[in-house]
Amino acid sequence: MGAIPPLPRPGRASLSAAPMGRALRGAARGAPLPLPPLLLLLALPRAPSDAAAPQSAPAGAAPLRCNVSLDSAPEHRWDAALRLFDPDFLRAAFFRILDLAVPEKVHAILRPIAEELAFSIHQEYAGEIRGLSNALGLNVGDGLLLNLAYEYSAFCTSIIAQDKNGNIYHGRNMDYAFGSILRKVTIEVDFLQNGKVKFKGTTFFGYVGLWTGQSPQKFTITADERDRGSWWENVIAGLVQRNSPVSWLIRTTLTKAEDFEAASFMLAETPIIADVYYIIGGTTSREGLVITRKRSGPEDIWPLDPSTGGWYLVETNYDHWTTPPPSDLRRYALLGGGWAQMPLFVEGTWL
Q1: Of these four, 93, 99, 121, 265, which has the most CB atoms within 10 Å of its CB?
Q2: Is the pLDDT of residue 271 over 80?
Q3: Which is catalytic among the residues 15, 156, 161, 189?
Q4: Which helix or strand (DSSP H or E) is residue 300 part of?
Q5: pTM for this structure?
Q6: DSSP letters for 138-202
Q7: Among 120-124, 196-200, 267-271, 293-297, where is mean pLDDT lowest?
């Protein structure tokens, strides 16, 4: 197997140059299948220590679905969802994840800092974390650390593609070191406002941010980790500056943005606590972007451009203009095939 070729770097494209802001339809134009919910496929665990994970329901079951009302007080938004789980299992699972993700000496330093931050950062999300922590008898600093630790422990792949009829498809997977635990706490959430679904997300119970979300008939978002140093260093540096955690910005964007263009600007320009890749899809032709983020703003914006052969974008955990290490072959399968060979472009079939 030959080396994986780097993709050409197109340079930073202007968001306004893409064909955004078109009237958004209720479904992808002419799609033989409706725009599917985003997929969260938790792969096999990478860490051998994961074998000692606490046990609960069978791991192969479909994720539980629950509602979270944005009209409720933040401290009580997750109360109904909490009743779907065994509290003892949740406590054991959360402590196991903290043990895996946070070195003991670092934990001792970060915990009191996190306790203070839990009362001074984004009030809605911090309120949700406080409510969950209180309900489960967890230290609120540990509750915040748990949320932040999730953000920097994943190897992910996101794909966004356009078929020959202009329909947009967006899918993803997530590979976690503690996957055998997270399979059992994966949930599909409908976030409600005024009694109606405002947006949807796939997440893990206890984690208030989103790495996978959909604003129905408007846009979809996924995020992939961009490794830039120890996650706790990024967390402290970013939160001291009052920047948004990566996954909280996704949720805020799903709450506030009314279309693909507005969502793209929010994801590109809002200061965040660490580097990341944001992948966003719309509902009309060419509405797809991979945004390579620094804390302060975009480093690169990579658009779908079927007119020049760019009918799909594949983002793993490396800058798309570079060559991944030989040990990581996730890009190879798609880059090794051509336009005509892909089943997405065969009439009546599905990628």
Answers
A1: 93
A2: yes
A3: 156
A4: strand 298-303
A5: 0.79
A6: --HHHHHHHHHHHTTSEEEEEEEEE-TTS-EEEEEEEEETTHHHHGGGEEEEEEEETTEEEEEEE
A7: 120-124
Residue 213: pLDDT above 50?
yes
Q: What is the pLDDT of residues 232-244, one digit of tens each?
A: 666 666 667 778 8
Can you read off the two tokens belonging to residue 349? 């079939």
* Token pair in block for residue 331: 């890009």
The amino acid at 245: P
Going by their DSSP bridges, the two strands 186-193 and 64-69 should be labelled as parallel
Measured from the Cβ of residue 37, the count of other Cβ atoms closer than 10 Å reads: 16
- Token pair 């996190």 is found at 114
* Model pLDDT for residues 256-267, shown as the tens digit of each residue: 999 999 999 999
DSSP string, 261-283: HHHHHHHHHS-BSS-EEEEEE-S
Distance CA 103, CA 272 (A): 23
Q: What are 155's two structure tokens?
A: 């190897």
Q: Could you tell me the CA-to-CA distances from 177 to 63, 145, 205 in Å, in that order?
A: 19, 17, 17
Catalytic site includes residue 156: yes
Structure tokens, 152 = 């920097």
- Give Cα 85 distance to the centre of its chain: 23
- Written as one letter, the residue type at 241 is Q
CA angle 334–329–299, rounded 5-degree value: 80
- How many other C-beta atoms are found inside a 10 Å radius of the C-beta of residue 301? 21
Q: What is the pLDDT of residue 35?
A: 30
CA pair distance 73, 128, nearest whole angstrom = 8
Instruction: Please check the confidence at residue 306 and state whether its pLDDT lies above 60.
Output: yes
Contacts of 46-53 with C-beta under 8 Å, sequence gap 24+, read 46/155, 46/175, 46/176, 46/177, 46/179, 47/100, 47/177, 47/178, 49/100, 50/100, 50/177, 50/178, 50/179, 50/180, 50/181, 51/180, 52/96, 53/93, 53/96, 53/178, 53/180, 53/181
